Amino acid sequence: MEKDIIVFFEKDRFAHYVGIELIKVEPGFAVTQLKLSDRHLNGLGIVQGGAIYTLADFAFAAATNSGGLATVGINCSITYFSSPKGSIITAQAKETSSEKRICGCDVEVLDEDGKLIAKFSGTGYRINKTIDYKTGTVE
């Protein structure tokens, strides 16, 4: 089942475009990773906050949709603590609540040394559709 979910999320064109990879997913949990390059840097030469946010948001999406209920974000916030060290950043998302319509999810973004560089909190709304990961369809 995990492989089917990963294949489904490969259709996320923006995450693919910036280089994000879904490493692990299970109900209510996901790990995403981004190999940093020059294209992820801002004018100051440090990792652009939007790249970090997108990594966390993709982990949030995978974790909250992993149970098969189509979920969209309705409120998200991120706090940045430091610039990442190394060439890889990882986001670990865990659902903190999972109700019929509303869910909550916390995401920690870590650098290559395991240092916390950002914390993301998201609220999701479960739309009236389900995801069939075997066929890749949303109904």
Automatic annotation (TrEMBL):
The keyword Hydrolase applies. InterPro entries: Acyl-CoA_thioesterase_PaaI (IPR052723), HotDog_dom_sf (IPR029069), PAAI_dom (IPR003736), Thioestr_dom (IPR006683). Keywords: Hydrolase. Residues 45-117 form the Thioesterase domain. GO terms for molecular function: acyl-CoA hydrolase activity. Pfam families: 4HBT (PF03061). This is Acyl-CoA thioesterase. It comes from Ruminiclostridium sufflavum DSM 19573.
